[in-house]
Amino acid sequence: MNSILILFAHPKFEQSRTNKMLVGEIEKMKGVTFHDLYEHYPDFHINISFEKELLAQHDIVVWHHPMYWYSCPPLMKQWIDLVLEYNWAYGPDGKALLNKKCLNVITTGGSRELYCSEGSNHYSVNEFLRPFEQTARLCGMQYLPPFAIMGTHRLSDDELLDMGRQYAQMLQFLQDDCSPQAMKDCSMLNDLEQLNT
Ligand SMILES: Cc1cc2nc3c(=O)[nH]c(=O)nc-3n(C[C@H](O)[C@H](O)[C@H](O)COP(=O)(O)O)c2cc1C
């Protein structure tokens, strides 16, 4: 079974509706380590050696965050800037993350229809997530399609609960089978056959 590390960043989790629901469905899953960055580091002083140790213990790394201004909240960026060190994560001697898998789980106010060339956001979420994709690649990780909960403001509590269950199913799928074959034709993991049958 693949072990999963969820790095979660939400600056106002106490006011969250969507992510509270999602986290409630996955934080206690077996084989999943849920790590709330804002809870651990409210002062932004990240314990780099602890974070590296956590990474070493897991096969799959999830960057889970609400989309803020087409990117991630600042502590997630701080984590990337400080933890992914030269000659540890990348560079000639940087092999610590080689062959691990990595993906974004995001929530967006805008709906999926708005994230395309004809929509008001002009680009797809995959395009907005390119810097994460390339960061993962530079570190020798395989970047997987994102899982996105979109149009959050319009989702009912029941729909949100359903998305939380799909998130848990998606993680279960990654624990059991992370082969590229299973994900082919999925621009987002929401489109996995296993979640839609
Ligand atoms: C500072 C800020 C920036 C945001 N930027 C975006 C954005 O770029 N695109 C988008 O679709 N939604 C954006 N939103 C909406 C949030 O993504 C959305 O409210 C959040 O994912 C809902 O999750 P929550 O209930 O857990 O907070 C933004 C919200 C805030 C507060």
TrEMBL record:
<dbReference type="GO" id="GO:0010181">
    <property type="term" value="F:FMN binding"/>
</dbReference>
<protein>
    <submittedName>
        <fullName>NAD(P)H oxidoreductase</fullName>
    </submittedName>
</protein>
<dbReference type="Pfam" id="PF02525">
    <property type="entry name" value="Flavodoxin_2"/>
</dbReference>
<dbReference type="InterPro" id="IPR046980">
    <property type="entry name" value="KefG/KefF"/>
</dbReference>
<dbReference type="GO" id="GO:0009055">
    <property type="term" value="F:electron transfer activity"/>
</dbReference>
<keyword id="KW-0560">Oxidoreductase</keyword>
<dbReference type="GO" id="GO:0003955">
    <property type="term" value="F:NAD(P)H dehydrogenase (quinone) activity"/>
</dbReference>
<dbReference type="InterPro" id="IPR003680">
    <property type="entry name" value="Flavodoxin_fold"/>
</dbReference>
<dbReference type="InterPro" id="IPR029039">
    <property type="entry name" value="Flavoprotein-like_sf"/>
</dbReference>
<feature type="domain" description="Flavodoxin-like fold">
    <location>
        <begin position="3"/>
        <end position="168"/>
    </location>
</feature>
